[in-house]
Amino acid sequence: MDQIFSGQLLFSALVLGSLYMVASLGLNLVYGTLRLLNVAHGDLAMLGAYTAFWCFTLLGLSPLLSLPLAAGLCALAAWLVHAGLLTRGPLAARAFDGEVLQRLEANSLLIFVGLSVILQNVAALAFTGSPRAYRYLDGVIEFAGVSMTGHRLAALAIAAVIGLAALAILHFSRYGLAIKAMIESSMAAEVVGIDVRRFRLGALMTGFALAGVAGGLISMSEQISPFMGFPVTIASFIVIILGGLGNLRGGMAAAFMLAFVQVYGVTLTSSSYASVLLYGVFVGALLLRPEGLLARRVASR
Prior knowledge:
Strand content: under 5%
Low-confidence stretches: 94-99, 296-301
Number of domains: 1
Oligomer: single chain
Largest sheet: 2 strands, antiparallel
Distance between the termini: 41 Å
Structural class: mainly alpha
Helix content: over 70%
Order of helices and strands: HHHHEEHHHHHHHH
């Protein structure tokens, strides 16, 4: 019982929740504004992880300094996806009625599954399928009886900055207000003069860039491989289902809730139950509150 109330578990849950938050924030932004089911989201995190890995091993560049590069490469991938898929073909519909949105989601699911397979296999051919890892800021720091490593503290700090910046942008900037309007209704946003196409591109690039940053942060503490993206995608989808699709603040809160359930649940049971807890929370949320944890609060506004 003393272990349950230890600061060590609290710190582990906060770090895991911060990684979930950064990864899921990008996925939620893309779905909320474009209604695209990006199942290749975790594979973009994989690209960010390899960017950090190769910058560190080949150039000696700190993974923290390579995060902007990882974000930029993923943002470039978003621009290519937008230019190649969203301005033509089955995802280029400009209408926003319910039937079109359903068709858009179905088409995006199939297209991003294909993109996921391509990214995984290209990475496996380029880097082999063997897991890789590197050591960075792995010294142990003791504070108030809690053992912390430098890379986990850095990940927690960067995630906190990203989360606070996201909240500030959503509440106090024209870009954030436009994004919130598009999440509520793209058709209404276009009617009031918002350049929906331009903001869709911005949201897509931001969402992809956040995936790259999440991958770079993950690479500092875990092994990476071309197939590491699937667990990241699943965890991100569970988070945005818990928080409510398109509800960015709800998703941020749900990320930490999922991390606390997973960390404390594993402590009370066994590490072999980690996946059971993860999917159990997902199924429970769908059964008890499929609209998301904060949907009632959002709907009441």
